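Suppose you are handed a protein chain with no further information: no name, no annotation, nothing but its sequence. What can you learn? This example shows the usual starting point.
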Amino acid sequence: MTYDNVIAALADPTRRALLDRLRDGPLAVRTLADGLPISRPAVSQHLKVLSDAGLLIVEPRGARRMYRLAPQGLADLRRYLDSLWDDALASFAARAREIAKEP
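A reasonable first move is to predict its three-dimensional structure. Written in structure tokens, the prediction is:
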């Protein structure tokens, strides 16, 4: 998984809305599309982008496909974001120490 693909996938508000809908468990495209201002084929395209980015798992169930969050993909994303946060805090702390030493 590349972080560029994940971040690009999450840049779209429709894709974030789809991820939010999947928080409580697996759903079919039809259910995911309910209430969205786009067609089911458009929802399917968004789901493919999320899946290709490693954020979703697709499970065939008969004639339907069920989509669920991919724990590993989300964990990898969280590790990346945590490392950014850790680096930002370390930089802030280093700068604060420099300022504290200034006369």
